[in-house]
Amino acid sequence: MSVPHSKRICQIVKLKDEAVAEYMDIHANVWPTVLAALERAHVVDYSIYYHAPMKLLIATMKYTGDDYEGIWRRWVAADPETQRWWKVTDGMQESLNEGATGSGKDVPWWTEVPEVFRFEGKP
Questions:
Q1: Is 122 within a domain?
Q2: Residues near 26 by Cβ (< 8 Å), separated by ≥ 6?
Q3: Where are the beta strands (DSSP E) in the chain?
Q4: Is residue 1 one of the residues assigned to a domain?
């Protein structure tokens, strides 16, 4: 069911072969401070999937606010603990975006993927 003022987001990034086990381990216990930053930024229903044949991490989330870019910069990208988390996880990944140097920078680290179909069923 849709949430008023919600935005669905899907993003992809490559996971380095040598980092698969470590990435899975760290995500089994995401730092509470990182989760708190996501909550403050109105992010809900966040999942990351791994497609091993293409080495792709696929993240999906819902943003329930009304200023995604602004809130993301203020509450997530500016959070010191999230920046520390990204230093760990970015080293395990390869961005698909030319010129990307890391999460929270001007050129996005994760590539946003456009939605081409949605079926929500009956409420």
A1: no
A2: 88, 89
A3: 7-15, 43-51, 56-63, 93-94, 111-112
A4: no
- φ, ψ of residue 75 in degrees (nearest 5): -105, -20
pLDDT of residue 1: 46
Averaged pLDDT of the chain: 94
For 57, the domain range is 7-112
In a domain, 2, yes or no: no
* Calpha distance 11→104 (Å, rounded): 14
Tell me the three state secondary structure of residue 115: coil
Asked if residue 70 has pLDDT above 80, the reply is yes
AA identity, residue 19: A
Using CB atoms within 10 A of its CB, is residue 103 exposed (0-12), middle (13-18) or buried (19+)?
buried
